[in-house]
Design brief:
- This protein starts with a helix and ends in a 6-residue tail after the last helix.
- The protein has two domains: 10-195, MFS general substrate transporter like domains (Growth Hormone, Chain: A, Up-down Bundle), CATH 1.20.1250.20; 246-462, Up-down Bundle (Growth Hormone, Chain: A), CATH 1.20.1250.20.
- With 462 residues, it is an all-alpha fold.
- It has 20 helices and no strands.
Amino acid sequence: MANENAALSNAQLRTGRFVYVAAVFAALGGLLFGYDTGVISGALIFIKREFGLATAAEEIVVSGVLLGATIGAIVGGKAADLFGRRRVLLVTAAIFAIGAFASAAAPSPAILIASRVVLGLAIGLASTNVPVYLSEVAPPHARGWVVSLFQLAVTVGILVAYLTDYAFAGVEGWRWMLGLAVVPAFVFWIGMFFLPETPRWLIRGGHHESAHRVLVRIRKLADVSLEIEEIKLSLAQQTESGRWTDLLRRQVRPALLVGLGLAVFQQITGINTVIYYAPKILQAAGFNSASGAILATVGVGVVNVGMTIVAMFLVDRAGRRPLLLVGIAGMIVTLTALGFSFRISNPSGQLAWIAVICLMGYVASFAISLGPIFWLLIAEIYPLKIRGLAEGTAATFNWGSNFIVSLTFLTLVEKLGASSTFLLYALASVASWLFAYYLVPETKGRTLEQIEAFWRAGHRSR
């Protein structure tokens, strides 16, 4: 027994080396996701100057990515099932590169918007397929942190985008800001070219010998027959694929409501108005220079990364509900403070720093609550039979809500004022706190089967 345990330990250590390589290269899809959504925040100031964009045109430039992402999220899962996770991610990397180059070279607003839609398609494909690839190549003992790395990579990508914006702000180099994404896209493609297809997809497609070779390679074990049998059994249980009508069954409806509710609340509480428009918000608060506003935005990005790491450590210790409720409460306080700060007449440097502090507090609160926990919960709360269908539906609602919020933010500020707009997001946060308190269950320490039994027993909350 001792020898077997030692062998297992050594096998896990060897497996870890491959997992690190796979995680780093595949997570580049998350970094590109974050970069291409965050970089527009600084670039938009200079794009508006060059093309003379009206408010509505600015909103379309920003939200074009989200339209493409919604489409990518809808088709991504089905495409990966048909053609394989690795092939779809290779195509995704190529689309990232094409979209970034076309955006940087765009001679007109129309071409820029079209290029941003193409980028969005890659973002949607990455958001649905990178986590799946990571979860299917990682061994059980490493799956949690490997999949969580994707969300961390997204926040790192946003921070890198903010730093790039600041680096090129002095020369108004918005084309460089957008175009530099070609570099990680190329590295992403190279990495995925050398990584294998997932054993699960190979077995599902009947490629058992290939699956065996891949498992031996990534697990560093001569005998992987037990894992192959487990995969076959799991796939056999999923042959009864869910239908759309299954989402409306009595025992499924509560879980569906939780997933769709969190998908919408994650967006209508305003997080991506900060991600996409932070420099414009800070200029309205009193920052006179574009580079100063962009530099302050870098601080917001650092907070986002740091608190996402904190959430990764706390979520299995403190639980989902406490983080969700405490984080949303923090969002309510900081959004309310931000809203009232804009009621101060004659914006000054003091107001500008109040706005920065409020934005940092808001992003920190989001990063330990609705940010990571939404994606975690939708992977946990649905019955196996309809899990893929339900997760895809929630992701589509999420991207659709993101599109609507980003498309309306500047118009709301123009019509209602910044103060009323942020107070509106604070009210949405109050609604999301009540939703989480009364309807979202605690899943910490429960197996997926126990969570499914929880819904079957007719429970509706906690």
